[in-house]
């Protein structure tokens, strides 16, 4: 197959990142895929997902701050979980449990590298336990590397376009989450890392989506300086 993604989407068609996700799903017969890109400031942009299942699973990893996604980003190596239910000592207990509730049984994360830098992650999901053989791991790693530059370009274009829209297959550039994090940082006189951790913890404890909470913070309906620790 052609591993070079198209530069632009066709009329009414999927974006390049969505077509990249579909390429992973089709090549490896998976249930879903998502692509996220990270800026130099650590901000994450989810630029494409293959379907609603992948979108929700990616959001879970972002909200919880744990999962194979983050391990692949920090290690720069593929993370392979062929059966979430058979992990004796899960590294990501919250994500593992929540993902299984969604019906996800296997998860694979591949770093997107440009030179020595890891600029993003491709997350792959399957509703049945399965393994990737060495050839498939090598192919997925190669695809993630070949798609990295196109994914970075799409993320930069979306971030610089104030009129870019969100939809079910590219669920969030998370502008409001990043804006809310800055506001919480000022409210609590803390670091950006701690502010995002507080937002994630509030989302988890309240059962509300982190994007919804971020909108409340930005609209000044929620002030973390008035919340208990």
CATH homologous superfamily placement of the largest domain: GAF domain
**Main sheet overview:** 5 strands, antiparallel
Based on secondary structure, the structural category is alpha+beta
Highest CATH level, the class of the largest domain: Alpha Beta
Instruction: Determine the strand fraction and express it as a percent band.
Output: 15-25%
**CATH architecture annotation name of the largest domain:** 2-Layer Sandwich
Q: How much is the average pLDDT?
A: 82
Q: Radius of gyration from the CA trace?
A: 17 Å
Count of the domains: 2
The geometry reads as globular
Q: Could you list the spans in which at least 5 consecutive residues all have pLDDT below 50?
A: 1-12, 162-171
Q: How many separate helices? A: 8
SSE order: HEEHHEHEEHHHH
Distance between the termini: 53 Å
Describe this structure in words.
- 47% of the residues lie in helices and 15% in strands.
- The protein is globular.
- The chain contains eight helices and five strands.
- The chain has helices spanning 16-28, 52-64, 68-75, 93-101, 134-160, 175-188, 192-206, 210-218, and strands at residues 32-38, 44-49, 79-81, 106-114, 117-126.
- The protein folds into two domains: 16-160, Beta-Lactamase, CATH 3.30.450.40; 175-226, Arc Repressor Mutant, subunit A (Orthogonal Bundle).
- It starts with 15 loop residues before the first helix and ends in an 11-residue tail after the last helix.
- Mean pLDDT is 82; it is low at 1-12 and 162-171.
